[in-house]
Write a structure and sequence with these properties.
alpha/beta, Rossmann fold, five-stranded parallel β-sheet, two-stranded antiparallel ribbon, 7 strands, about 40% helix, PGP-like_dom2, HAD-like_sf
């Protein structure tokens, strides 16, 4: 079941030229019943719920995948018999798929409605690789690049939302006019940080019907 897109009263859609999308629970459906901890436990971890203090380092590109795996193996007590492939599958179990029509709508916004569309997502190399496999399987593309004007992952730019530096990085890189740019994100903290940087922003989730954006541009 979809929910209507609720636009702020002070948002003039006709002024919007750029849209920045979050991925998780906005464009990408998540497995709500899946977690890395549960998957690690299934693989024999003795302390699957251990606090992982280096996730932020991994998601900002300051830790490579092998170093991250080794740190998590040590913290959670994963058996040495668990392969890297098994580890990566467990770590990325939360990613499900793109709901039918979601990426097609992005293409419509980019093509028919004339928006420039971007992604800004907190991610890491393991999650991004899994996402690319989903795209390849269901959309016959190797990444999100063909669907968007540009894609920004935290592990590539070195900043995590809701750090304002993440939004400023995108604004500066693309030379965006913040007031002409709309962020669509499911996190209130991210919305607040984006508006502090001058961006327009609206909170949405995977159930939000985004078709209003294309209709609004055409009206």
């Amino acid at each position: 079941m979809s929910s209507p897109l609720q636009l702020p009263n002070d948002l003039n859609v006709s002024s919007i030229k750029n849209i920045i999308f979050d991925l998780g629970n906005v464009l990408v459906k998540l497995n709500q019943n899946a977690s890395a901890a549960a998957e690690f436990e299934r693989l024999g971890a003795t302390n699957p719920d251990a606090r992982l203090d280096n996730v932020d380092l991994f998601q900002t590109g300051k830790l490579n995948p092998q170093a991250f795996r080794e740190a998590v193996r040590l913290s959670t007590g994963l058996p040495s018999s668990v392969t890297d492939a098994q580890f990566d599958k467990a770590w990325s179990a939360v990613l499900a798929n793109f709901p039918r029509g979601r990426l097609e709508l992005v293409q419509k916004l980019r093509g028919d409605s004339g928006y420039k569309v971007y992604v800004l997502s907190n991610s890491d190399p393991i999650l991004t690789e899994r996402l690319n496999k989903i795209i390849d399987k269901h959309h016959n593309e190797r990444s999100l690049d063909p669907f968007f004007n540009k894609v920004f992952y935290s592990h590539e730019i070195g900043f995590l939302k809701p750090d304002e530096a993440a939004f400023k990085y995108v604004i500066d890189d693309l030379r965006l006019v913040p007031g002409e740019t709309l962020l669509m994100d499911n996190s209130a903290d991210n919305i607040n940080a984006a508006t502090s940087c001058g961006l327009q922003a609206v909170r949405v989730d995977i159930t939000t019907n985004l078709n209003l954006l294309s209709r609004a541009q055409e009206d």
